[in-house]
UniProtKB/TrEMBL annotation:
It comes from Pendulispora rubella. The keyword Signal applies. Residues 56-143 form the M23ase beta-sheet core domain. PANTHER family: MUREIN HYDROLASE ACTIVATOR ENVC, PEPTIDASE-RELATED. It comes from the Bacteria. This is Peptidoglycan DD-metalloendopeptidase family protein. The keyword Signal applies.
Length: 351
């Protein structure tokens, strides 16, 4: 992962009004409140067009490896999901604007009739079911549910900002470039960037185009003062400042924390800042710096009341103590005992 070390962020001294956060917010709520995509279109599958739209072929075939993900092109309700003649299996989604998308030949489906999906949600895996000579997605698009014939998906998705063929996670809504920047944002990352304020946001201007992460699972852009990371399962979230530096020290998404699943928020006591990641959290204050907390130790810290409890903020990362593990806090430590898989709190002696 390129570190872009010369692009180190500024001190995190942001008001909640800028970040739409609340001192009453707790991690569990923050994850649910993490920003959502605007109503836009998304790339249904990554791969070449192996057969285009023409008379006798009412749709487009997108070639791809077996079990590659298929994404909903936009928000809507699932009106069909199951076996279908010719397709083997299919899914139909009626979108909020009245149009409809049909997906065929998948071997695994993740949605059922009546489900509501968001644009960019993974709904199935590419297969070779039904009348197919190899793994691919057949996609049909309709201006209105009930139309007798579909319209060319290249035109349908192109009008919504997604050219075919496309990259997984690419979304409509255009792109953003900034004066003095060196790159552009597109897709879900662009939606997030615009929601944060775009060129005038705390992140500053783009310093890269959208890039693929080394594990190939995600996509990211680098900005003057931070980054935005996206995966199909985590959506797009920003990380910046001292928290981003700590995440970098932990080997980015390849480390034990994984990808960010929230933006940066203010802690409930109004003093600290934090991001939640797949494998834990990073907390920062001006007097403790940034430190990660995870696993059973994080669970115990939660039970103790997080930073508002008797332990306060973390002052160290998790580290070895003999054969056990420990994180230090302002007023004590939490130890994880390997032999018993239990945790215990050790408070500092009163001065």
């Amino acid at each position: 992962m390129t570190s872009f070390g010369s692009l180190r962020p500024l001190v995190i001294a942001l008001s909640c009004s800028v970040w739409a956060c609340s001192s009453a917010t707790r991690e569990e709520n923050v994850i649910e409140q993490a920003s959502t995509f605007a109503d836009t279109a998304f790339c249904p599958a990554e791969g070449p067009i192996t057969q285009g739209y023409h008379e006798g072929h009412d749709g487009v075939d997108i070639g791809g490896p077996l079990s590659a993900p298929i994404f909903a092109t936009a928000a809507g309700s699932v009106t069909a999901s199951g076996p279908a003649q010719g397709y083997g299996q299919w899914i139909r989604i009626r979108h909020d604007d009245g149009s409809m998308t049909e997906y065929g030949h998948m071997h695994t489906r993740f949605v059922e009739v009546g489900d509501h999906v968001n644009g960019g949600d993974r709904i199935a895996l590419i297969g070779a079911e039904g009348q197919a000579t190899g793994p691919h997605l057949h996609i049909r698009t309709y201006n209105r549910e009930g139309d007798g014939h579909g319209i060319d998906p290249v035109d349908y998705l192109g009008a919504r900002g997604v050219p075919l063929p496309c990259q997984a996670g690419q979304g409509g809504g255009g792109s953003t470039t900034c004066s003095g920047g060196d790159g552009a944002t597109v897709g879900a990352i662009n939606v997030k960037y615009r929601a944060l304020g775009g060129c005038d946001s705390v992140l500053g201007v783009p310093r890269s185009d959208e890039l693929t992460t080394p594990d190939t699972r995600g996509r990211y852009n680098v900005f003057d003062r931070g980054s935005i990371y996206w995966t199909p399962s985590t959506d797009a979230h920003e990380v910046h400042g001292a928290i981003r530096d700590k995440w970098s020290d932990s080997k980015w998404e390849a480390g034990h924390l994984g990808y960010p699943i929230t933006d940066e928020f203010t802690a409930p006591d109004g003093n600290g800042r934090f991001n939640v990641f797949e494998g834990g959290s990073i907390y920062w204050t001006s007097w403790t710096g940034a430190h990660e907390v995870r696993g059973a130790i994080r669970d115990r810290w939660k039970d103790e009341g997080w930073e508002k409890g008797r332990l306060g903020y973390p002052t160290s990362d998790e580290h070895d103590v003999g054969s056990d593990r420990q994180s230090d806090f302002e007023h004590g430590s939490i130890q994880w005992i390997r032999a018993t898989n239990e945790t215990k709190v050790v408070m500092k002696a009163n001065p």
